[in-house]
Design goal:
flat, 8 helices, homodimer, 2 domains, 61% helix, transmembrane helix (chains A, B), ion transport (chains A, B), Helix Hairpins, K_chnl_dom (chains A, B), disordered C terminus, two-stranded antiparallel sheet, transport (chains A, B), mainly alpha
Chain lengths: 257, 257
């Protein structure tokens, strides 16, 4: 990337297109933060950025969402064991417990990150909180950008590492919150529809595949063998056969789901 | 917002914090584009932006994802009717068809938007494509921002309308692609687990709630009424009652799902 993307804002500090700077730039592209502290100025650079983003952003989204889901699952395991050790009546982790944990984690991440950034960058604590918030929501205005002072990108590798880990860890926590608060509702329609479809199929299959011994409601057992060939649905309604009274089994079965 | 957020970059053109500019700013915050062409500089402005984003971004996400899902559903209806009229063998819209349609829509949106922006802003066509791409992926570097020349925000209301509609429409199309390509995979684990759980519950419920008339495999109809109280699971295994031969109905039933 260094060879095709040129340093576009030479008035900012730091060696923007050495490895650390390029990595920082790539992170802001893939996470869609897009501070704009360094941007491609050549046609090749812009083209590469577009191709890179087109592949990288969906992959990044999948990665952060997967991590977020795992954070949620880990949280629920921890909540359950804590509740177990406290001998709570309700041992399962509820949605509300999870939301509380993830909100606390997000707040701690922003508070901790802000403390570090205000120390390293010389910002006020409030400004650092604002920077962390704008970064982790991926708004990324670029009015305040970390790693731009005192050639931090080349001279303070531990600070660069911290800033990048903060962004990746913070985004994972935010992804966990979004997974919990938004995505479940967003995919609910699709999920419900699929489940309804699957259930309709099952009801149909259940009506036909009633094979083996049947215990009726009055307690008697009926032996019935379909053998190895299953009757197709229409054979249950033979025009010359016995009339099936309504509600028949498949109607009942569907209604019971 | 105008009263608490101050114009922070007075060197840029346009009245940034009049209604049109503030609306543009709010759009860049809620969509997480965050060009950074105008940013809050006061403590009140930053605080308001954070609160606004904390509520608005999840709502925006839900909105765009809902629209995206509806775009996908509309596409599949259109594909189905086109296939019907062309007398295709496979009448259902496959996932691949949908991906093709949504990709074409995205490309057309970017191509069309780029043509308009290159005309209004005097950018080259390639730069306009780059701008549209960086905007619709919500990276929003802010190296190129529409509506900043010739006091467009106050003097060209039709162009302002076009730019905002382009962003909202474009993001809906991008959301449709993401819904199709990413979100379904991301929520697959959760979905599968829930479906498995629901099915296990149904299998259990199905074994108990076999109510009404039963058609056995040999064709006879058995009338059995549980009445209004359903037998709990353990009552199907009365120790003194008739021994249920295996495979019994609930075993079969579970296996058939």
């Amino acid at each position: 990337m260094e060879t095709i993307v040129l340093k576009s804002e030479p008035h900012r500090a730091g060696r923007q297109w050495k490895f650390a700077g390029a990595f920082y730039y790539a992170t802001t592209v893939l996470t869609t933060i897009g501070y704009g502290h360094s941007t491609p100025s050549t046609i090749g650079g812009k083209l590469f950025t577009m191709c890179y983003a087109m592949i990288g952003i969906p992959l990044g989204l999948v990665m952060f969402q997967s991590i977020g889901e795992r954070v949620n699952r880990l949280s629920s395991v921890i909540i359950r064991s804590v509740k177990s050790s406290l001998h709570c009546r309700q041992k399962e982790a509820s949605e509300l417990d999870l939301i509380c944990v993830v909100t606390t984690l997000s707040s701690l991440t922003i508070a901790g990150g802000a403390a570090a950034f205000s120390r390293y960058e010389g910002w006020t604590y409030f400004d650092s909180v604002y920077y962390c918030f704008i970064t982790l929501t991926t708004i990324g205005f670029g009015d305040m950008v970390a790693l731009q002072k005192d050639s931090a990108l080349s001279d303070k590798p531990e600070y660069v590492m911290f800033a990048l880990i903060f962004i990746l860890f913070g985004l994972a926590i935010v992804a966990a919150s979004l997974n919990l608060l938004v995505l479940r509702f967003v995919t609910m329609n699709t999920e419900d529809e699929r489940r309804d479809e699957a259930q309709a199929m099952q009801a149909l299959a259940g009506a036909v595949r009633l094979e083996g011994d049947v215990i009726t409601a009055n307690g008697s057992i009926l032996s019935g063998q379909l053998g190895h060939h299953l009757l197709p649905m229409h054979e249950l309604h033979p025009p010359q056969g016995p009339i099936v009274p309504s509600p028949a089994i498949y109607t009942n079965h569907r209604a019971s789901i």
